[in-house]
Design goal:
Elements lengths: L1 E8 L2 E9 H16 L14 H32 L11 E8 L2 E9 L16 E2 L5 H15 L2 E3 L10 E10 L2 E14 L9 H5 L7 E7 L13 E14 L7 H7 L8 H36 L6 H16 L4 H9 L1 H9 L2 H20 L6 H15 L3 H10 L3 H19 L2 E2 L5
Parallel strand pairs: 5-11
Antiparallel strand pairs: 1-2, 2-4, 3-4, 6-10, 7-8, 7-10, 9-10
Length: about 425
């Protein structure tokens, strides 16, 4: 086996591997001899199976294994020749050439490595910004929002149910005339217009009078979580018992202030307003960061910091973006791409610029995180996933296991590092706060 390698640039290399037929045959025989001691074949004692029998029965698989081993050795030789370690290799090597005949295999392998990145001067891309101002009116609105949230529901005298009202009613759902499990409740309370129920249900209740009964026709979404109901037409029989509304307190009392400041000693309206002011300012900063500061910084550093991109990672990102976009294509486009390979290749290629920017930014963020000592622990990753699970009302342990099974925990960690990095980048670059 002959292997020669050369660097294309600092992040990519080409390894030419010539594997002669004799080397392949010898490796196949070696694997067959090893397999002969382990496989079970009727008519032979285990460990006494003739190599010829193994070759006849498993020759194709053994040949594949032999080639795989030889290419692995070729890659190891190339890495050694290039002065690279195996853990510097990124992604799976790809073939830019593969020719096989009776004399053996002539191939070219594309190898990619983590690029060397110089992020010096990145500070110039960090925009200065004014600390977001918080008004008294915004603090009062936040208090009113909380008071509305905790306000008790009471029966209100009203003729007709409208959006924004709370309905107390009974319902039972039927598909093909048969009641389905989980589709019945009595005395259920629902805010009309909150979109808690499937599309069309709450709109169908608008206009109902107390004591009135009605059949509401709806269609379950195609992606509904219960497979037996997904995409099905259904009828809900409803009866409205009462129209309710929230009775919102006009001002804060001591008990409510304590509810809004759990664990706070000497809770007071002044302390509450100061805490809300900090929260509102942080919310405004996050909005400013995500909509203005971060995009501007990203464009600047991607333009300013240049380095060679590992080809294998770029190709993976192109495939990822193309797969994500596939379901958004029209049926006509899908059919065209299945039949026309040139059109498919051209469409995939259209994602290259965005993929290169995404890969470039990922490496820049990784390097900046090291420069600024920004780290995210595994515990922080778990906490973030648990928090997401609680927000969506799913089992946190199952949610974490799903992420682990799909192999996306590193991506979650990278997203958290990026979030923490950008907060760190801009937290010390604000102008003096103006009076409020």
């Amino acid at each position: 086996m002959e292997v020669t390698s050369k660097l294309v640039n600092s992040a990519n290399a080409i390894a030419e591997a010539k594997i002669d037929a004799k080397s392949i045959e010898e490796r196949v025989n070696k694997l067959a001899q090893k397999a002969a001691k382990q496989v079970k074949v009727d008519g032979f004692r285990q460990g006494k199976v003739p190599v010829a029998v193994v070759l006849k029965r498993y020759g194709k698989e053994l040949e594949g294994d032999a080639k795989q081993e030889l290419f692995k050795e070729a890659i190891d030789k190339a890495l050694n020749e290039l002065g690279k370690k195996p853990d510097e290799l990124l992604g799976d090597p790809g073939f830019s050439k593969f020719e096989e005949n009776e004399n053996g295999i002539d191939a070219e392998l594309e190898l990619s490595f983590k690029p060397t990145i110089d992020v010096s001067g990145y500070e110039e891309a960090i925009s200065e910004y004014a600390t977001p101002r918080v008004t008294k009116k915004e603090i009062e609105a936040k208090i009113e929002e909380f008071l509305t949230m905790i306000a008790p529901l009471e029966k209100i005298e009203k003729d007709v149910l409208e959006k924004g009202d709370f309905a107390k009613f009974d319902f039972e759902g039927f598909v093909d005339g048969v009641a389905f499990e989980g589709g019945k409740a009595e005395g259920f309370v629902l805010e009309i217009g909150s979109n808690q129920f499937i599309p069309g249900f709450e709109d169908g209740m608008v206009g109902l009078k107390v004591g009135e009964e009605k059949d509401i026709n709806v269609k379950f979404p195609a992606e509904y979580q219960a497979p037996n109901l997904a995409g099905k037409d259904a009828i809900f029989k409803v009866k409205l018992h009462e129209i309710q509304g929230k009775v919102v307190a006009k001002e804060l009392d001591d008990e409510t202030i304590k509810k809004m400041m759990p664990g706070e000693e000497d809770a007071s309206k002044e302390k509450l307003e100061e805490r809300l002011k900090t929260q509102i300012r942080e919310d405004k900063f996050q909005k400013l960061l995500n909509e203005e500061l971060k995009p501007k910084f990203v464009d600047a550093v991607v333009e300013k910091i240049n380095f060679d991109l590992p080809k294998s990672i770029v190709e993976q990102e192109i495939d990822f973006q193309f797969r994500n976009a596939w379901n958004g294509f029209s049926a006509e486009d899908m059919a065209k791409f299945r039949e026309d390979k040139d059109a498919l290749t051209a469409k995939r290629e259209s994602y290259r610029a965005d993929a290169e920017k995404s890969v470039k930014l990922t490496f820049i963020v990784d390097e900046l995180a090291k420069v600024r000592n920004v780290v995210v622990s595994d515990q922080e990753v778990v906490q973030a996933i648990y928090f997401e699970a609680y927000r969506y009302g799913v089992d946190p342990k199952a949610h974490l296991e799903d992420y682990r099974n799909r192999g996306v925990l590193p991506a979650v960690k990278m997203a958290l590092i990026e979030e923490k990095l950008f907060n760190d980048l801009f937290s010390k670059n604000k102008k003096e706060e103006k009076g409020e």
